[in-house]
Design brief:
Elements (H helix, E strand, L loop, with lengths): L25 H15 L4 E6 L5 H11 L4 E6 L6 H11 L9 H17 L3 E6 L7 H10 L3 E2 L2 E2 L2 E6 L2 H6 L5 H4 L2 E7 L4 H14 L9 H11 L3 H17 L7 H11 L4 H38 L7 H20 L25 E4 L21 H11 L7 E6 L10 H15 L4 E6 L7 H21 L7 E5 L12 H7 L1 E7 L9
Parallel strand pairs: 1-6, 1-7, 2-3, 3-6, 10-11
Antiparallel strand pairs: 4-5, 8-9, 9-12, 10-12
């Protein structure tokens, strides 16, 4: 009816298993390979299961067509029979022209048939479709048929093909002897969405189609209805083509597919499907909510590990987490113009035993070359004369390049509370002048390996950089460098010297000509 409308040669979505339209996805190719393996190696019993409409019968037909003349094949598609009827059905499908009235007669004659096939170098394959309909009594008779064998090999290969409930039947205690003889099993799953798309395109191409008749959204709608079962895909696609023909449409849209799903659904089935969709959405939203909470908690705990460096102790790590999120939430809550508010020493308690003094030195006074072989000497302790000098220097923080020297505790990356005031002022300078850049250098003493000290110094530099970024300074304007044990301020031979060398230096740079900018 609709063939000429879509420029097709024949109907592409017939329910009958036409081998011409055979499409083997990854699952079906694997299943076919398993079945062929069972025949080649005379495995005896082989089991193929799958839900209704997954393509089991199509696959069996493909298997039969692929076998050569050396294999004698018989297929039974309705095994719901009594014992004697079943024996005579076997005789008929194997073209044994005889009617049996007794089990013994059938067993003797069938045994002769199998031995004759073996002498002629032929294999015998017996395929039982719809195996879930076989009675327990008949299953036992089939098991006994497999006892007809010779020492060298099995004379009869039996393939069970059934729906998923057949697996439950085989798990029953009465079927345990048969279950133990099944050497190869395979279960066919429905097609995925991408496989469904390929399946539809293949059938249209075989039918003579030269263009895309179904839109991508329409195919997604088909997959949603069919759940990837080939039989349902065929049914709804055929119905959609007919509906498109009636409406004089050359392309099938989601609207057409939706109309077809309603027409194909039984009374009450639409409500059930809608109820399932609502439950599924609720379940997915709950899963999403739980995942969002879980990932938020993980991010809460891991973010201070990723950006601010890890403290050497659990206590230090907890302090870093608290300080990091205190600062983060404070920045979110405060307006942009008030983010340079300084912190008091009481807000961030000192957690490590280090000097509370932050040295502020104009860079031009600290960059002179030192005598070869001796470290730069700069006392961390402060006397009254030095303090007056520092106060004078602090007054010029807004008008010249400056270096802040921040002490750190042993094996720690915790910023001392006394440093926040000066870091806030340095951040204020950078916020006031967009041309200001900063270089943050981390240092250690000589305790530990070079690799460890290099990493620790980088940690220290990054945690200071992170604080400045939290105060509003762009990270692109701050360069963090781990210097390790390089450029010691004092000799590392004494505890005071090592304490002085555990530090971070923050250099605040203005471009030439901007020194008077306020």
């Amino acid at each position: 009816m609709y063939l000429s409308h879509y420029n097709l040669i024949e109907k592409p979505f017939q329910i009958s298993t036409d081998p011409k339209f055979l499409w083997l996805g990854e699952k079906h190719r694997e299943a076919l390979a398993v079945l062929k393996y069972g025949i080649i190696n005379n495995q005896g019993f082989v089991l193929l299961t799958g839900d209704v409409g997954t393509g089991k019968t199509t696959l069996i037909n493909a298997l039969v067509n692929s076998l050569d003349k050396d294999t004698i094949v018989a297929v039974v598609s309705d095994p719901k029979l009594d014992r004697l009827e079943f024996f005579n059905l076997i005789a008929r499908v194997f073209k044994i022209n005889r009617v049996f009235k007794e089990k013994l007669d059938f067993t003797i004659y069938f045994s002769q048939f199998l031995n004759a096939a073996y002498k002629n170098n032929k294999k015998v394959l017996f395929i039982i479709d719809e195996a879930q309909n076989i009675s327990l009594e008949l299953l036992e008779e089939i098991r006994l048929l497999s006892n007809i064998e010779i020492p060298e090999r099995k004379l009869l290969n039996i393939f069970f093909v059934g729906q998923n409930e057949f697996n439950s039947i085989l798990m029953r205690n009465e079927c345990r002897p048969l279950r133990q003889r099944i050497t190869v099993t395979y279960n066919i799953d429905p097609l995925t969405q991408s496989e469904s798309t390929e399946y539809i395109a293949h059938r249209l191409k075989v039918a003579g189609g030269s263009r895309e008749i179904f839109t991508g959204r329409a195919i997604r709608k088909i997959y949603s209805f069919s759940k990837g079962y080939p039989r349902l895909i065929n049914i709804i696609c055929d119905h959609a083509l007919l509906t498109g023909y009636v409406k004089d449409l050359t392309t099938i849209t989601p609207k057409v597919v939706k109309e077809c799903t309603k027409e194909l659904s039984l009374p009450g089935e639409i409500k059930i499907n809608r109820s399932r969709e609502v439950k599924l959405r609720r379940r997915e939203s709950k899963k999403f909510g739980k995942r969002a909470i879980l990932y938020s908690c993980l991010l809460f705990l891991l973010l201070p590990l990723i950006y601010p460096p890890v403290s050497a102790t659990l206590k230090g790590y907890v302090t870093n987490v608290v300080n990091f999120y205190d600062q983060l939430f404070e920045d979110f809550a405060a307006p942009a113009h008030s983010r340079t508010t300084t912190r008091s020493d009481a807000e961030i308690p000192e957690k490590t035993s280090v000097s509370n003094t932050v040295i502020r030195v104009p860079i031009k006074n600290t960059e002179s070359k030192q005598p070869s072989g001796s470290p730069k000497e700069l006392e961390v302790s402060v006397n009254s004369d030095t303090q007056s000098q520092l106060n004078e220097t602090t007054q010029h923080i807004d008008s010249q390049d400056l270096k802040l020297i921040i002490p750190f505790g042993y094996n720690s990356n915790e910023v001392p509370a006394s440093a926040y005031h000066d870091l806030d002022r340095a951040a204020a300078v950078a916020l006031k002048d967009p041309d200001v850049t900063m270089v943050v250098k981390g240092y250690t003493d000589d305790k530990g390996s070079n690799a460890y000290n290099s990493q620790l110094s980088a940690f220290r530099a990054n945690i200071v950089k992170n604080y400045l970024v939290g105060r509003g300074v762009s990270p692109k304007r701050i360069k963090a460098i781990g210097m390790g044990e390089e450029d010691p301020l004092k000799l590392n031979t004494t505890e005071d010297g090592r304490r002085a060398n555990r530090r971070v230096e923050v250099e605040v740079h203005r471009p030439p000509g901007n020194s008077s900018r306020n």
